[in-house]
Amino acid sequence: MTRALPRAIAALVGLGLSGALVSCARDNPKAGASVAQVAGEPAAPQEGKTMRATAVAGAFYPGDPTGLKAQIDGFLAKAELPKLEGRIVAVMVPHAGYVYSAPVAAYGYKALQGKPITTVVIIGNSHRTYFSGAALSPDDAWNTPLGPVEVDQAINQELVAANSVFTSSRSAHADEHSLEVQVPFIKTVLPDAKIVPILLADVSDQDLTKVADALAPVLQRPEVVLVASSDMAHYPVYDAAKRSDTAMLDAIVTLDPQRVLKRDRELMGERTPELHCTLCGLDAVITTIMAAKKAGVTEAKTLKYMNSGDTAGDKGRCVGYGAVAFLAPQGAQQATAQASGEELPLTETEKRRLLKVARQTLEANFGLADKPSLDPGDSKLLAQKTACFVTLKLKGRLRGCIGELEPRQPLIQAVASRATAAAEQDPRFMPLTADELQSIAIEISAMSPLRKVAGADEIVVGKHGVVVKQDFRSGVFLPQVAPEQGWDRDTMLSILCTEKAGLPPDAWKHGAELWVFTANVFSEEEFGMAPPDSLKGR
Question: CA-CA distances (angstroms) from residue 176 to 60, 105, 171, 230, 290?
């Protein structure tokens, strides 16, 4: 699928020199905007150093250094961050005029302030210039009222070498505001850091995957961080903007690109008056999620949300602003566990506790019991963030199965939430009824971290659960599925591609990624905890 041409061509709305709201990334240049055509040409060789001049200083942010520094410091001082655990691999921040969006952007940058970061990759969608692919900046530095910021040309060269989707274009960056407005903030919170500006335009899903694949190894370095530049809803009334933005932020923090795209389609399909787009940097945000996950991110957290009606605009025509942090676990223990893919060593006591939590959660949902305690007590494993699936079987037949591939909650909390989801949200079944509850047996699969494999030969049927991924499509089978169905490896992979991921049956042979995991699988039946009715009719 190729995205709309182009993703972001903008016309400024006159709101005074101190800031501007920007029109949506879906605007068509043929509808009236003047568009410069660029073919991703290399910058012409020049003697000495080259520096990109500011394009929107004095319009989107103050042009004098004293006023600019005071404004940024003021916004940072007012930002009060939630508790963040782990390494910040990426942040999403807005890019409108500072009086409108900087109160939110400051949250993202305060989270980076003082960190040992030497390079900031900034990615956004082009608002003014049409081209195809991912445009890097050939200049040696970008100027700001606070002084120049050096471009990390070494990383530029890595990205170009990694994939041909990257080109170098001075003209693509010349008038673009969405990356420029980030640079004074970077200069303030990370005064010695270099930048790698990347603009996206006319990109396909495959292009975004290529960009994410190239960025992932760069982001695995603790001294590098990624900044995704995007405003949110353009330009509905206040309540409609808030509703759209809340829905999109909820999707973003799931770290599921497909869910973000689906939510975007749903919201745009509602035809809300004056809602031109949900994220003007949709491609940049999708790429950030994919790259961040490949670099080890397991959690995303919204730091702040406001729209222009909250900051400096009226409530009749609003643009939304969100700040999000993307976090990876700290420490060698996580890396070792991820590399080994070992089964989670739960004790029988811990397994029984989790099964009781799942059962009592379902009973509480029907008003048949109080909600269970989710305090892990002295168990480190129940307190550890772990991905899991909860499977419900009705007299031996599947009645619901919902899980997650990335660890986002302590295991005991994840089991409770997945049990509810399996009962209520599996699209293959109607929601579970109270009458069925006594005929349901519960099974839990506590997963090891995902591990990418080079090919199908590394997959062991019965030991490994498998995830297949290609572009924005993916599917998963738990380790127990193939043995239960009597499938060999090739049959399992073909069915996984077609029935779970919507891919051709041989996609696993032709470019699709294969990931494996192990799972500690245990059930009520195993411990004699299943209700008697669950065994009838088998």
Answer: 11, 18, 9, 13, 24
**C-alpha distance from residue 32 to each of 28, 97, 375 (Å):** 8, 23, 59
Q: What angle do CA 201, 206, 207 make, to 5 degrees?
A: 35
DSSP state of 299: E
Give dist(CA 479, CA 456) in Å, integer.
15
Distances (CA, A) of 60 to 21, 228, 390: 9, 18, 50
Q: What is the rounded (10 degree) CA torsion for 476, 481, 487, 488? A: 70
- Give the pLDDT of residue 342: 62
User: Is the Cβ–Cβ distance between 121 and 226 less than 8 Å?
Assistant: yes
pLDDT score, position 230: 98
Radius of gyration of the chain (CA): 25
Query: Among residues 379, 508, 519, which one has the least CA distance to residue 449?
Result: 519
Cβ distance 181 to 149 under 8 Å? no
In the beta sheet, which residues pair with residue 135? 167, 199
Whole-number pLDDT of residue 367: 94
Q: How many CB atoms lie within 10 A of CB 181?
A: 29
474: phi then psi, degrees, rounded to nearest 5: -155, 160
DSSP 21-66: EE--TT--GGGS---EE---PPPPP-SS--EEPPSSBTTTB-SSHH
Detail the DSSP E strand segments found in 286-341.
299-307, 320-328
pTM across the whole model: 0.63
The predicted structure's pLDDT at residue 405: 83
**Which residue carries 């042979």 as its tokens?**
509
| CATH superfamily for domain 336-535 | Hypothetical protein ph0010; domain 1 (3.30.700.20)
Domain residue ranges in the chain: 12-40+52-60+88-238+258-276+285-309+321-328, 336-535
Question: Does domain 12-40+52-60+88-238+258-276+285-309+321-328 correspond to CATH entry 3.40.830.10?
Answer: yes
User: What sign does the dihedral 119-120-123-128 (CA atoms) show?
Assistant: negative
Whether 12-40+52-60+88-238+258-276+285-309+321-328 shares its CATH topology with 336-535 is answered no
Q: Are 218 and 158 in contact (CB under 8 A)?
A: yes
* pLDDT value for 534: 63
Answer for the pair 390, 419: CB distance below 8 angstroms, yes or no: yes
pLDDT at 91: 98
Q: Which amino acid is at 329?
A: P
In the prediction, which pLDDT does 532 show? 76
3-state DSSP assignment of residue 525: helix
- 489: CB partners within 8 A, 6+ apart: 456, 459, 461, 482
Q: Which residues of the chain have pLDDT under 50?
A: 1-46, 332-340
For Cα atoms 247, 307, 229, give the angle at the middle one, nearest 5 degrees. Answer: 80
Helix and strand element counts for the chain (H, E): 16, 23
